[in-house]
Design goal:
This protein is of the alpha/beta class. Helices cover 45% and strands 17% of the residues. The protein contains 13 helices and twelve strands. A six-stranded parallel beta sheet has the order 2-1-3-4-5-11, with helices on both faces. A six-stranded mixed beta sheet has the order 7-6-8-9-10-12, sandwiched between helices. The termini are far apart. 42% of the residues are buried.
Length: 345
């Protein structure tokens, strides 16, 4: 270590240059454009960096460039494995592009979401991937207008933004058609808030297939949060209804709700699927591992995340030529024991 330096001081680029016997500009080229530095010079600079323990100041470099290599990912519920899988897909591609993903949890709270967006913009992130509470929120397009690319994930968007989503109305239709074909005539749809786009779309899908079929009673139950606790509570509520009026099947807007609902049925002593057939949404790993393996509408979560990151990279790297795209994937119904039962009509 250079004479006179404190033990906690950070070596400077000037000290690296002095030790290697090169100019500061050569060290800068080594760090930013190593291909233009002669191999023997690169080796001397590398040896100097290692000996001194030099670490480049990425924050300062990003400040000079006006943009970092960090991407913000804002999700509704970090405890939901669907968003974990989505983040894994986004991070995998980010890693290939030498980019870091910063995960933010809005907890389905618009105020908290807005706080995260403000902080990410102040940090000059490269771009933002977000599953917003409200995909029509004008603050999202305002971010783009100020220079921060935004891609909606698990949401559709107009042509002003890129988006990656699943056809949730089709997912609702798949679940509803399966339950109707299994003989159910009293079906509950459980999710919420109903104002959230993907919940509204899943509700619209099952409602459409019910209306086309006719002679089916579709009951709606709204929850504020789609978690296991809320699913169990609504399950116990429905289990307490008289058997003549109680739904014989339930389609829940995500798997966490469905798993809690399954618990509620077990506590009440109802048999799944004989007394109550259950279909969830997302097909998280816990769905197939449940005590009664859960039928679910599968979303390609990792592919959603990876595709969203691809769109963001395209926009960042070719902003002038970029054209916003809306990518929509198709869901699949995975039938397991929780709904695999034919009722006599």
């Amino acid at each position: 270590m250079a004479a006179g330096r404190g033990t906690m001081a950070t070596p400077s680029i000037k000290e690296v240059a002095q030790r290697a016997g090169v100019s500061v500009g050569t060290v800068s080229n080594f760090l930013n454009r190593p291909g233009i530095v002669a191999p023997e010079t690169r080796q001397r600079v590398q040896d100097s960096i290692k000996a001194l323990g030099f670490v480049r100041n990425e924050a300062a470099r990003h400040l000079r460039a006006g943009r970092s290599r960090t991407v913000g990912l804002v999700v509704l519920d970090v405890t939901n494995p669907f968003f974990t899988d989505l983040a894994e897909g986004a991070e995998a591609l980010a890693y290939e592009h030498d980019t870091v993903v910063m995960l933010c949890n809005s907890k389905t709270d618009p105020v908290r979401e807005g706080h995260h967006l403000d902080q990410l913009e102040q940090q000059r992130v490269m771009g933002i991937l977000i599953t917003p509470f409200d995909s029509t929120d004008p603050s999202l397009t305002a971010l783009v207008d100020r220079g921060t690319p935004v891609v909606l994930v698990d949401r559709t968007a107009d042509r002003g933004l890129c988006s990656v989503s699943v056809d949730d109305q089709l997912g609702g239709r798949l679940a509803g058609n399966h339950l109707i074909e299994s003989g159910h005539r009293r079906i509950a749809f459980i999710g919420g808030p109903f104002t959230m786009q993907q919940v509204a779309d899943r509700k619209a899908g099952i409602t459409a297939i019910v209306e086309e079929t006719g002679d089916v009673d579709l009951q709606h139950y709204e929850v504020d949060v789609m978690g296991v606790v809320e699913g169990r509570a609504i399950g116990e509520q429905l289990a307490a209804l008289p058997a003549r009026s109680r739904p014989t099947a339930a389609f829940l807007a995500n798997d966490l709700l469905a798993l809690g609902f399954l618990q509620g049925m077990a506590v009440a002593g109802l048999r799944v699927p004989r007394d109550m057939a259950i279909v969830g949404y997302d097909d998280i790993d816990f769905a197939r591992a449940a005590a009664v393996p859960l039928s679910s509408v599968r979303q390609p979560a990792e592919l959603l995340g990876r595709t969203a990151m691809e769109l963001l990279q395209e926009e960042v790297e070719s902003a002038e030529r970029h054209r916003h795209r809306q990518v929509i994937f198709q869901p699949d119904l995975i039938v397991r024991e929780s709904s695999d039962f034919k009722r006599r009509r």
